[in-house]
Amino acid sequence: MFEFTYSANPARVIFGSGTLGRLPEIVEEMGLQRVVVLSTPQQKDDAERLQAVIGKRCAGIFPDAQMHTPVHVTEKAVDMVLALQADGLVAVGGGSTTGLGKAIALRTDLVQIVAPTTYAGSEMTPILGETRDGNKMTQTNAKVLPEVVIYDVDLTMSLPVKLSGTSGINAIAHAIEALYSRDANPVISLLAKEAVSEFSKALPAISANPGDRTARSGALYGAWLCGTCLGAVGMALHHKLCHTLGGMFDLPHAETHTVILPHALAYNAPAVPEAMRALREALDTNDPPRALYDLAGKVGAPRSLKELGMPESGIAQAVERAIANPYWNPRELEPDLILALIENAFAGRLPEYQHTEHHG
Ligand code: NAD
C-alpha cells in the first residue's frame, strides 16, 4: 500500500541544445530590464558571452563566484546588484555559481535564471550552503529556488572528463539516497531510478569520447533528475559522511561523494531491499555498490580518501563526529561498522557489505 506526501518544487525547465539562445526572450518575458550575470573567474568568458546575448537588458557581470559560497563574496555581490538596481540574476556555471545566485536571492528576493554547466543539481533545490569563517551552514528556504533553469547541452561539452565523472557520481548519490529516504515517494523513486540508469551509461561514454553529444545530453538529463530528487526528499548516511569529512579535512566536494558512495550504499544495503532492487535494475548488476566503485574507476575518478588528502590519523575522529549528530538513516549507525566503512574508503578498497554480528 502506498502512503506518502509529495511536494513538487515550482520551476520552469528548458532543456536541449542551443537553448541558451532563448535567454533574451526569457528575460523579456519575465519583464526583466536589468539582470546581472554571475560566474566563477574561470567561466568569465561564458558570462561575457551571455552579457552580449542579453544586450541592453544586462546591467553587468559579477565573475567572482567561489567554492562553498563564502558570505564575504555574497556581500560584495549584493552591494553590486543593489548599486546597479538589478531586477534579476542569471547564473552560468556549476554548483558554486548557482550557490552565489541563491545566496543573493535570499537577501534580495531577486528572480534567478540558472544555466548549469556541471551535473551538481543545485539549480533544482531550495537548499543553500554558505560558509562564514570556514564554517558551513546549510538551510532550506523556498526563496532560494531558481525560477527558470535553462539546460543547454552545449554548455557542458567543455566540462573536463574527470570533473564530468565526479560531478556525475555526486549527482547519482542524490538519486540513491532519495530511493531510501525517509520521505521517499513513488514519483521521486521513478526519477531516481531513471537518473542512475542514464548516468551509468552516459559517464563511461563521455570518458571514452568527451565530444559524444548523446552521452552529454543523457548526463545532463540525469543531472536534472538527480537535482529534483535532492530538492524533494531528505538525504541520509552518505551525505552525512561527505559533509563531515569534507568539512573536517577540506576535501573536494564531488570527489568525496565519489569515494564514499559505494561504501555508504553497501552499509545501508541490508536495510533497503526495495532501493537495492531498483538499483540492480538501473545498473544492470547484482552488486550495485561494486558497480559504482567500478564506474568511478572507468571515469578515472579517485577511489580513496587518502588520494584526496585526508590524514589517516583523522579516521577515528571522523567516525565520532559522523555518529554524534547523525541524519536520519534507514540503518542504525554502528560505530565499529562505520569505522570499517571509513577505513575501507580511506584505503580505496572494494565496498564491503557490513553485517551486524548477532551474539548469543
Ligand atoms: P563548481 O561549481 O565549484 O565548479 C568547479 C569548477 O569547474 C569551477 O572552476 C567552474 O568554473 C568549472 N566549471 C564548471 N562547469 C564547467 C564547464 N562546463 N567547463 C569548464 N569548466 C567548468 O563545482 P560543482 O561540483 O558544480 O559544485 C559544487 C558546489 O555546489 C559545492 O559547494 C556544493 O556544496 C554545491 N552544491 C549545492 C547543492 C544544493 O542543492 N545547494 C547541490 C549540489 C552541489
Q: How does this structure look, described?
A:
The structure is a single chain. The protein has 360 residues and is an alpha/beta fold. It has two domains: 12-156, Rossmann fold (3-Layer(aba) Sandwich); 161-347, Dehydroquinate synthase-like - alpha domain (Dehydroquinate synthase-like, alpha domain, Up-down Bundle). The protein has helices at 23-29, 44-54, 71-83, 95-108, 153-156, 161-179, 186-208, 213-232, 237-249, 253-268, 273-283, 288-298, 315-324, 335-347; strands at residues 12-16, 35-38, 58-62, 88-93, 111-116, 127-132, 135-140, 148-152. It has a six-stranded parallel β-sheet, sandwiched between helices. Strands 6-7 form a two-stranded antiparallel sheet. Helix 4 (95-108) links the parallel strand 4 and strand 5 (111-116). The radius of gyration is 20 Å and the shape is globular. The two termini are 36 Å apart. 51% of the residues are buried. The mean pLDDT is 95. The protein binds nicotinamide-adenine-dinucleotide (NAD). Residues 40, 42-43, 67-68, 93-97, 99, 117-118, 120-122, 125, 127-129, 155-156, 158-159, 163, 167, 230, 253-254 line the site of nicotinamide-adenine-dinucleotide.
